[in-house]
Amino acid sequence: MEKKSFLTELLKNIKSNYLRMIILAFLSFLSSVLFSRMLGPNSYGAYTYMIWLTSTMATLLGLGLGGTITKFLPMYYLNEQFDESKKILKSLLIIQTLCITVISIILIITFPLWENLLQSINSEETSILVFLSIVNILPVALLTLLISSVQALQRYDIFSKVAIKAQIFGFILNIILILIFHKIVYILIVSFIISTYQVILYAAFVKKELKFRVHDLFTEKSAIIDRKRIFNYSKYMYINVVWQQVVFTRSEYIFLGIYSGPKEIAVYGLAYGLVNMVGMVFSPVMNVLNNFFSALVAKQEINLLETIVVSLTKYFIILLLFLLTYAFAFSKEVINLVYSSQYNDVVLSFLIMLAGFVLLQGVGVAGSIPFLYEKQKFVVNMGIVAGVINILLDIILIPKWGSLGAAIANTTTQVISAIIGFIYIIKITNFRFSISKLIPSILLSIVFCLSLIYIQQFKLKLLIIIVYTLVYFSLLYVTKIISKQEINKIICKFK
Known about the structure:
The protein is mainly alpha-helical. The protein contains 20 helices and no strands. The longest helix is centred in the first third of the chain and has 56 residues, at 6-61. The relative contact order is 0.11.
């Protein structure tokens, strides 16, 4: 049988992942519009807070094991060490399940002791909402671990099929229940059902792929070969995940809940969600590439890794600047039209976070490399410092400016962290990034953004958008910022 090229496998996985992301982005956007309009700012804010509570606790109690799977499962599986693949997955599943089950029970029993922290939510159903959020922690955390396993096995087609079916079913069920009952409780119940459904399907696939038997979880006692190395890696991965995903990214919800209340949470949640939707343009590529990078490091294909990382960093930033230009020019009228004037404050918070996202996502192409090189200690230490800065900014800015302060705090620390992290990546890899070639693109984007803001008051906006797009990319091509020869060279490297 002819071995498939890197390019064939890469494009196949990106195609599957993009199909999933397009559908999920559409459903996510539609859900945010319908939920925000049908529930109103206060109820939508309470719903956003409960979803945040579940995802944050799942991240905290997930122990960073999804990242560990991404690093080590391809290393064993691609080198045909199938027994080791099963051992590491079995060990991590047992650890995660036991940890989350015990902590969830403790949280439910002790809820009367900490329920005062949620007074700002001001909902008659707070107790049942919190209970459902805690119950949902286990399936959400297991889902993250199993998705990482499926991706590490390079089966994005399975990942996409399951995710698409589950999200479509969940969306339809949520809309029906909201129309009938207008209660947040039912949305959280649906969330639990959908998460559990996906866990079952992904577990069945992994079980089949690795020839995994359920009773192996309880009978096989053989130790993992690289146990010390794996658990040391997991320790740093966990610290990084906690600070990056909880403190560094989601701490704003905590302080908005304390100081501002559900309406400000709804505004910030919508702005944050819209930025994530923009991220869905790039995350299908990055989800595939991070696992692909892991395989390249395992095979010592460092030259190929450098070519891909350096080129994609440049083209990601070019495309992100293009999207940012349109966002600054048209986001106000689009958001007001779609979400209504109740969410007027979303616009500025969205633009602030999107500006930070451009830099973060652009240099983030290489973001996983320190972990693949097992140089994660610096990144973890940097994340802790950035997290502390973020919390201090939250405490200073949120009581005064609410959701806007949260957006400023989030963006400031993200930008600082991205720049320092990028410098460190250059140091440990010696990759040659052509940053100077991006300066004309940045200047061009600023000029076109100001032009669009001025001319959008005129009619024929669709024509203006088409002309702008053609002129923008034509100038990039003429100035050789975008190079056909460079793109062809990258493609040849894959073959």
